[in-house]
Design a protein that fits this description.
By secondary structure, the protein is mainly alpha-helical. It has helices at 5-20, 46-59, 67-80, 85-91, 97-119. InterPro entries: DNA_brk_join_enz, Integrase-like_cat_sf, Integrase_catalytic.
C-alpha cells in the first residue's frame, strides 16, 4: 500500500506508541489489534473496524461513514491524480473491472474538463453545472 509522507509519519507514531504500551511490533504481526474481551490481542476483524469507523463517524457528525467510504475516496483520488486505471485498480484490490468503472468515469470527466480549460487558456476552477 502506498502512503503519503504525512500518513507514513502518523503510522510510525502509532507504532512507537504501540511499543510504549508494551505491544510487540513486527512485520509478521497484525498492525491493529482487537481490545475486545473475547478477541484481545488478535487481529482487529472487519466487523471491529466497521464498528470503530461507524462510531468515529457518529462522533464527527458523519453518520454515513463506513470503511468502504475510504476505498471509494482512495480509488477516486488515484484516478484524479492521473494514476493509470489498471494500477489504481490493483492498488485498491478491485477484482472486477466493471465494478471499478464507476471511478474511471469521474476521472475521465475531470480530465476532459481540465483539457477544455487548458485549450481555451483558462483556469479549471469552475464548478460543473448540473
Amino acid at each position: 500500500m502506498l502512503l503519503r509522507k504525512q500518513n507514513r509519519d502518523a503510522l510510525n507514531r502509532y507504532l512507537s506508541w504501540c511499543k510504549e504500551q508494551g505491544e510487540e511490533v513486527s512485520s509478521d504481526r497484525p498492525l491493529i489489534l482487537s481490545h475486545h474481551a473475547t478477541r484481545k490481542g488478535e487481529r482487529l476483524s472487519y466487523h471491529g473496524i466497521y464498528f470503530a469507523i461507524e462510531k468515529i463517524g457518529e462522533l464527527a457528525a458523519f453518520p454515513q461513514l463506513h470503511p468502504h467510504s475510504f476505498r471509494h475516496t482512495y480509488s477516486t483520488e488515484l484516478l484524479l491524480m492521473d494514476v493509470d486505471p489498471t494500477y489504481a485498480r490493483k492498488q485498491t484490490q478491485h477484482q472486477s473491472e466493471k465494478a471499478f468503472r464507476r471511478y474511471t468515469l469521474r476521472g475521465e470527466q475531470s480530465s476532459a474538463i481540465a483539457a477544455y480549460y487548458r485549450a481555451v487558456g483558462e483556469e479549471s476552477d469552475a464548478q460543473i453545472l448540473e
